[in-house]
Structure formats: C-alpha cells, structure tokens
User: Fold this.
Amino acid sequence: MPTYEPQDLVNELRKGASALGIRRIVMGAAGALLVVFLWSTWFTVQPEETGIVQRFGAVHRTVGPGLHFKFPDSIESVRLLPTARVLKEEFGFGTIATPAGRRTQYTDDKKPFKDVSLMLTGDLNVIDVQWIVQYRIEDPVRFLFQVRESPQTIRDIAEAVMRRVVGNRLGSDVLTVGRVAVSTEVKEEMQKILSEYETGVRLVTVELQDVTPPDTVKPAFNEVNEARQDRERTINQAQEQANREIPRARGEATRTITEAEGYAVERVNRANGEATRFKAILAEYERAPEVTRRRLYLEAIGSILPEASALYIVDSDQKALLPWLRLESGQTPTAAGKAGGQAEVVKGDRQP
Assistant:
C-alpha cells in the first residue's frame, strides 16, 4: 500500500482546486452560507411555549405558538419558555422519569436530600419534611432577566420559608393536623417574596408529600403516638359515658323530686282531709256523745268483720276460755256451731 507525505497531500489538494477553479469554490461557499443564513431565519414555538426574541442581546418582542421568522442568529436569537405548563420543584425526595401510564417511581437513595428535608420544629424536635412546589411562568421576560437563576432562587425561597414556618410550630402539629395550614402559610409567604423580587412566577400549589420523624427515632415516636391515641380514645370513651350517664342521673333526680312533691301534696291533702273529718266527728260527738260513739263502733266493726277469716265471741265474765260462737266466712251460725277444732281466742269486753 503506497504511503503519502503531508506535502504530497497539500500538492494534490492544490491541483484539485486549480482544476475546479476559484470561481466555483467561491460560489459553493456562498451557497453554503446562504443556506445557513436562511435556516436560522425561522423558528417554531410549541403550543405550551412562549418565544422571547432578543436583538443584539436586548429583548425585542415575545411571540406565541406557531411558525415565526427573525433575523439571522448573529442579529437576533430566540429563547423558548414553557409558560403554559405547570413546573415542579421537589424537596426532600426525587422522582425517576417513568413512561406515560405507569406509576411514579422515586429514587431509593435519600441521603442527598436529607440536608433539605430535615428540619427543627418549635418544640426542638427534628422531623423529615418532603414537599413539592408547583408554579407557572407568568412573565417570561422577568423570569429570564429580572433574577439570575430563577429556578434556584425559587428553591432557596421555598426552603427558607418552609424552615421558618415549621420552626414556629410544634412537631406533633406538623405531623398531624397542621399539614394543610403549613402548606397554605408557605404558599402565601413564598408568593409574597417572589412578587417583591419580580420573578414573573405564579405559584399553583405547595403540598406536603410526607412528614415523618427521622429513621433513628421512629420507634420512640410511634410509641408516643400510640400513647396519645390511647389517651384520646380514653377521653372520648369517658366523655361518651358522661354524656350518657349525666342526663340519666338528671332524669332520675327530676323523677324522684317530682314523686316526692306529689307524695308531699298527697300526704298534706290526706292530713287536711283527716283533720276536717275529725273536726266534723268532734262536732257530732259534742252534740250526741252516746250515739256518735256507737256509730263509730259499728263502723269499725263493719270494716273489720269482712276481712276476718275466723271470728270467736267470748264472754268476758266467763272464767273458762270456751268458744261461744264461731263464724266462718260465708257460713251461717248453725254451720259454724257444728265446726269444731282449735281456734284463736280473741279476748274483748262486751260492747253495748
């Protein structure tokens, strides 16, 4: 295989150029420059983007989606920003790009994110806070030129505000019921700072993804959390029992008081009636003592005899305790006289 020296190659190129002619070379170079010139005079903006055209480095105009023309790159340049798309910044974790239709996957190595996610709370506890910030570019010109490194500025502001808000709250509050309040406060504070900096950014949402204690203290935290849950459950059970027993006791007390009042009224009315009856009998007795005494005796005997199961009439002057007459309920004196046997003897004086 023949070898060539560098000088031989240069000579060969000179001979080829001489054969083509200087004119043709110049025309070919001019054509190539013209193609490059024409190719850099048009550009396409996608539906979710906004184009910022810069002329000699200064912002000249902004264009929307579609096909547009401009001066060559040496005069005008274009920068495209996704103004119609929601952008996202992740803190404390990272996601892996996954195909459409599949579940989002997260990175397994969390050590690089611990510097951002570990925070000190107001009660001097350490918690691991993971959150996302979603925003849209509202003013592309300000986003590009008002603040240097706008995405990094958003991250710095988000981290500073989140640390301040979490540091002003109890750890248990951030871990449980205060998540929504923390997100809302961080969003409002961040938007206020971004507007003062004129970054051209409008926040969409700030959302806490996962708030947990550090791995080293998770067992102790779980025990404390279980104890708090047991305490709340016991308090709720006691409150439930109190709500059930107190109205019942109040009802029983009211019923007892009402019964006592009714009994008192009954006894007072009965006493008044007995007193009135006694006064009436006393007035009758003063007018006719003997008649009244006999009537009272007969009335008493009339109320006692129907209730007696056996009756013995004994003469008080007789020494021996012999039954004179036995009367069973529903028997005639003849039948009662035939019935013998032992019986209870009731002593008593004869009444007139």
